[in-house]
Design goal:
The structure is a homodimer of 190-residue chains. In chain A, 12% of the residues lie in helices and 39% in strands. The first copy, chain A, is mostly beta strands. Chain A has one domain (17-172): Electron Transport, Fmn-binding Protein, Chain A (Pnp Oxidase, Chain A). In chain A, strands 4-3-7-10-11-6-5 form a 7-stranded antiparallel β-sheet. In chain A, strands 2-12-13 form a 3-stranded antiparallel β-sheet, with no helix packed on it. In chain A, strands 8-9 form a two-stranded antiparallel sheet. In chain A, β12 and β13 (173-175) form a beta hairpin. Chain A is globular, with a radius of gyration of 17 Å. At the A-B interface, β1, β2, β5, β6 and α2 of A face β1, β2, β5, β6 and α2 of B. β1 (3-6) of chain A pairs antiparallel with β11 (135-148) of chain B.
Chain lengths: 190, 190
């Protein structure tokens, strides 16, 4: 393959990635702040841990350390504009939920709500954090998961014929999956 | 939204995720082992760090600790069968590269090669590792990135009209993106 060799930081080669919106309560203002994160990953099955990268300079980072809990919110492709606005607005200055007229739903285990538009959401408590370069990896233990009644099949796999997950592509661009391309390779060598 | 409340571990709510194949040299056998990883994320921009989760029980984990370096390889959707086989075969028992007739390319900085079928690859040195639950997060510093000559646009964004990235959906299913759904929301509230 003809290739270009690039310095790190000059390409978005590790995208597309599922947009994960982190929700954190602002106890002083009695509001909940939501911020989109593209750098996140499951970390462990037993216990169920999920990691989210935030810059220590962000308001959400400050809030997570204060409350010790957060929600994860996964949005459909139609909400790309909401994700983009959640990233542009500063929760330090404005109540994003009020400004964007977002509906919230209460969880079962923690006090932090999740976004009603999320096709999947999870309640987490902060169990660890690690500084890696210019970001903090916030490690949450997943306590409870909430999915739309029709969002997953019997195996727990997201039904892409019904849900169009919002993926971030870099440089303020978003995309979703093509349900017609789902495949399950056989066990025989391809 | 009508919802189901689930215990963690009973759904693949955090998929789809880009398949990242980790390449690690096996110095004793003079081969390179490749294993697909779905749990990975960029961790920092300055310095450029990328994290990959591996079970401490895997052969790749053992090899990374021995060599201190690895490559990241991102495959097109057409290689789903290869990704599936790389996950099923054990590098401890077989030479996956020979068995699957995979072509390799040499990097510039480290000794570990990458997969010729990868539309994007990166050379990394292991700089840190952390145990989170049942997985180790291996933290690599990205030293050099190699992309197909036509894989990225002038902004460094993957050209989905030319590249169809392989995403993992859970339960041995794979999918790719729909290039017709790329959008760039305006700065005005949605």
């Amino acid at each position: 393959m003809e290739r270009k060799s690039l310095a790190p930081g000059s390409s978005y080669f590790y995208y597309p990635r599922l947009v994960c919106v982190i929700g954190v309560r602002d106890e002083a203002k009695q509001t909940t702040n939501f911020a989109p994160v593209a750098w996140s990953t499951p970390l462990s099955s037993h216990p169920p841990l999920f990691g989210v990268c935030l810059s220590p300079a962000t308001y959400s980072h400050h809030l997570v350390l204060a409350t010790g809990e957060f929600t994860l919110n996964f949005l459909p492709h139609g909400e790309a504009g909401v994700a983009e606005q959640l990233g542009r607005l500063s929760g330090k200055r404005v109540d994003k939920v009020a400004q964007l007229s977002l509906a919230l739903e209460g969880g079962e285990v923690i006090a932090t709500p999740f976004l009603a538009v999320a096709y999947a959401a999870a309640e987490c408590t902060l169990v660890e954090r690690h500084q890696f370069g210019d970001q903090t990896l916030l490690v949450g233990e997943v306590l409870r998961v909430h999915v739309g009644a029709d969002a997953c099949d019997d195996n727990g796999v997201v039904r892409l014929d019904r849900i169009r997950p919002l993926l971030y592509l870099g440089s303020n661009r978003y995309v979703t999956t093509d349900a017609a391309t789902v495949l399950q390779p056989s066990a025989a060598p391809g």
